[in-house]
Write a structure and sequence with these properties.
single chain; about 140 residues; about 70% helix
Length: about 140
């Protein structure tokens, strides 16, 4: 729980411009994870893993406009994320596409977003983000599909 709280606080501090605070809390999240006894963790915290910690760090870096760093962290997240976390994989795939688009790499963003199986997305928030990325890609391509 402490890991998650520190990672979320890091994102908030980053969004307020407190980069030092963001860095301190990302480091605190990593230390808390390293000290945690995952064998006794409650089941609803099972998603907290090195992959999720990378993903939460990516979100904090995105909040401060460090898109390249955020993109690297999300890519690492997707490489090590367990297959049982399909919903998280979808979330981070959409985030990766958004970061690629923010970095001006329209074709990579298009390739990444095409990996999302929209028919399996149950979150209206994620569906909306997929639609926003697809619309932005069409705009960048001059209206082409």
């Amino acid at each position: 729980m402490v890991t998650l709280l520190n990672a979320r606080l890091a994102d908030y501090l980053g969004s307020t411009g407190d980069l030092a605070g963001m860095g301190r809390h990302l480091a605190a999240a990593e230390r808390a994870y390293d000290r945690a006894d995952i064998t006794t963790a409650v089941s609803w915290l099972a998603f907290i893993s090195p992959a999720e910690l990378n993903g939460l760090s990516a979100i904090a870096h995105q909040s401060v406009g460090r898109y390249d760093r955020a993109e690297r962290l999300v890519s690492q997240t997707l490489e090590i994320l367990g297959p049982q976390f399909g919903r998280n994989r979808t979330y981070y795939t959409v985030l990766l596409s958004e970061l690629q688009l923010a970095g001006g790499d329209v074709e990579r963003a298009a390739a990444t977003i095409s990996e999302v199986r929209i028919e399996k997305v149950t979150s209206s928030r994620i569906s909306s983000r997929v639609d926003q990325v697809a619309s932005a890609i069409r705009r960048h391509r001059g209206g082409q599909s």
